[in-house]
Known about the structure:
Shape: elongated
Enzyme class: transferase
Number of helices: 46
Radius of gyration: 43 Å
Keywords: Transferase, Ubl conjugation pathway
Strand content: 5-15%
Organism: Helianthus annuus
Domain HECT: 696-1037
EC number: 2.3.2.26
Amino acid sequence: MFFSGDPSNRKRVDLGGRSSKERxxxxxxxxxxxxxxxxxxxxxxxxxxxxxxxxxxGRKVVKAERGKAREQFYTxxxxxxxxxxxxxxxxxxxxLRQLQFFYSPQNISDFSTLVEACRSLLQFAKDSGGILKLVxxxxxxxxxxxxxYRVKSLAYACIGAVHHNRYQFxxxxxxxxxxxxxxxxxxxxxxxxxxxxxxxxxxxxVSYLLQQNVYRIFREVVITGKExxxxxxxVGKVSLMETLLVLVIAHTGQGHCVCPNIDLxxxxxxxxxxxxxxxxxxxxxxxxxxxxxLCQHYLHNMATCTHSYExxxxxxxxxxxxxxxxxxGNLLEAVGVALARPACPYDLAIDFANVATLLLEILPPIQxxxxxxxxxxxxxxxxxxxxxxxxxxxxxxxxxxxxISNAIDxxxxxxxxxVLFGSSSxxxxxxxxxxxxxxxxxxxxxxxxxxxxxxxxxxxxIMTVLAYRTxxxxxxxxxxxxxxxxxxxxxxxxxSPYLPADAFGWLLPLAxxxxxxxxxxxxxxxxxFYEQEKxxxxxxxxxxxxxxxQDLWQILWLNPVAPMKFNTNTLSLKKHRVEFVQYxxxxxxxxxxxxxxxxxxxxxxxxxxxxxxxxxxxxFISQAILLAMTENxxxxxxxxxxxxxxxxxSRVKLFTSQLAAIxxxxxxxxxxxxxxxxxxxxxxxxxxxxxxxxxxxxxxRGVIRVTFVNEFGVEEAGIDGGGxxxxxxxxxxxxxxxxxxxxxxxxxxxxxxxxxxxGMIHEQHLQFFHFLGxxxxxxxxxxxxxxxxFATFFLSKLKQKHNYLNDLPSLDPExxxxxxxxxxxxxxxxxxxxxxxxxxxxxxxxxxxxxxxGGKNIRVVNDNVITFIHLxxxxxxxxxxxxxxxxxxxxxxxxxxxxWIDMFNEHELQLLIxxxxxxxxxxxxxxxxxxxxxxxxxxxxxxxxxxxxxxxxLENQHKFLKFVTGCSRGPLLGxxxxxxxxxxxxxxxxxxxxALERLPTSATCMNLxxxxxxxxxxxxEQKLLYAxxxxxxxxxx
Length: 1037
């Protein structure tokens, strides 16, 4: 045909090369597959239908047969077993066989029949002389299998009947009225009689019950009966349910018992001990559990469990009563009794510590009225990463919290530590260099338990007993010393179930040793520490410093952990267990090493460089200065957590670089917004207070220019280029911190601290303290050293630290001696008639103040004297100056951030404020001096000048420095850092007589000395001394 013009008639061609037959074949195969699947599904449906019908018919037939058997039973024995005699319970009778065949717990009639059968069983057993003869007949051994089967079925039927009808009879389930003839009592009595341990079938019966998960049945029965429990009238009485539990738990598969060990999920521990306050319901059961070795057996089963405890515990009763917390509370109460018994097994303490550690780890933080939570246990900073990748853990019931916190009391901890570390073999092992597995296991168990306890419970309840009433510090130190000596930390990692084997072995011992030893040092006095060398010798402390700084360097620089903040979600702690322990060690080891550095500053027993890490070199310091401002870097973490690892001079460089960065940031603003003030020299404090107090924080960080007005009301000569301001800072600090002004007092060492009675002198005393904080902050901000010797305990307040007993000698040595006398008093302190009251004496006015609420009625006795000493020291060192210190700190922090001075201890902070007072390094100044106006290094006038200055007294040297720089103290790191460098310029032109009669002058803003070319040393010395002692302000210029 010819083309018609219609494109729709074109022949379709498959460009893939497949024909239509091939496409039809594929479709046919798919259709056949679908039909095959459909036929298979139909066959499965038919097969399932057959099975269902078969099962239904079988059940129908069984139900019918049981109905027939029931009717036959009623005909033979009566519906209420009224035609039953003792022969009916024998092996040849069909009575029990028929009853067990048709009995159904859902049938009310069957329940009544079972109760009456058990009533008859109890009565006939009593009359015939025992259950064995009644049920086993005269030839029990020949029919043992049949008898055992009937007995175990009957016992299980009795317990199951109680369980099925628990809601109907819930007020009778835990009844202690044993003589009652109620249905529940009859069934429980029968079950208890059938599993009497004296009977030959006892183990077989209990084994069968355990296979039927009888503890789950007991749990549900007890929880139901607990709702109607009335504690009144139960003291000293044992319920039938408790009796039954006692009979069952005794079968542990040990000794003569052949009962198998069942899965932990269905065990007594998981099912019964996770019931809230189970020992309050069953006190006799608790006694049996502890006294017969059952506690040790069930604890060992839990300790060897490979599954997480949350997976083996039943569903929680409620949100406030999670199973793991209930289990922990009950275990603590039971183990507390076991630990108090003589010869408590070492293995029990090990297993308990390991089990309790894992349970405590899941626990939310315990809250008390005093602490309000775990705030004081917090170990992370505000800027740390928050781990929150686990569901929130809701708080526990107050009663459950109270049970747990009351159980872990000082006595409990004392007994646990004594059992773990008190065995004679362990003490013998500790004297050897080689560490035994037993000793390592004890240390690992104790440290794991205490580490988690520190995280969960308030520290003040447990630290004192660990520090003063146990040998924990000495045992741990002996262990750590030998591990360090032999480099054998892996022995602990190998036996610790808490941390993986590849974790650092020293983590857990340090996590416990550091806070306990630190707490001990709070009450140790100077004589004990330095002279008696208690609790550790000074040689041991030097070794401890080495261990601490090496381990800190390891986890902060070589193997750093990511910065984290572990919130109250304890599941996250478990997930990040190693990281949490490592981070805790960073904090507690840093705190302890800082405290040891404080002791070293009081009286040196180690060279200051001993605290520096060996790995700190020039490369590290340069990197630290570059990266210290960058958070989440290793250098930042070291300077924040353990700054003492870095030499003091390096930290000062970093501090000045931080200040320079802040000044540069505010530089453009200060060019256009400078503050200028006129200050009367004879009213310097009042004028400065009224004018500087009005400045905003930004203006305080900017440039401040001062014009002095002399006593005649005339402005002094000179333009403030910085030198007059430095002079102003020296003068105002000298005036403000003068004791005669009444804001500060002196210690016996002439060190300053806030006057507790300042409010009686100045109405605006707190505003003055705020102002003085600003003044000190401004001096440090501008790098001006001021001669203010502060007391160490007051400098602690600038770091927001707490002061303790060992800080008291600098304030009140007499009170300190009295407190130490009380601490060492061997008699009865009650005879001294001391109470928790302290008397304040300010300006002749004596007032009494209670140290604790109701303190005037609480006598100081031997048991609470340590607390009394702490409270007295706290009152004098912290409470009395709290208001003044907080206002001073508030003003200080307007210019100096807390992070900047956290790098320094109190001794170093005093150096930052005042510099060193030991000497004046003339050679250092000479090597960092410029010359102008014709002078040079070898000029004869210059040689005379340096010789004269070197022979000046230290006082005149400082006066000279103030004359030329405006400040009597040189730069902290040396005159190399004086800005600008000191310069000597020739003054007076030619050496005429008029020129030689001129006095030397200075330009303090440029650190410039204008020195005429005197011809003799005597003339130069005379003119210099006159100029520096004239105190003529800037009129000499």
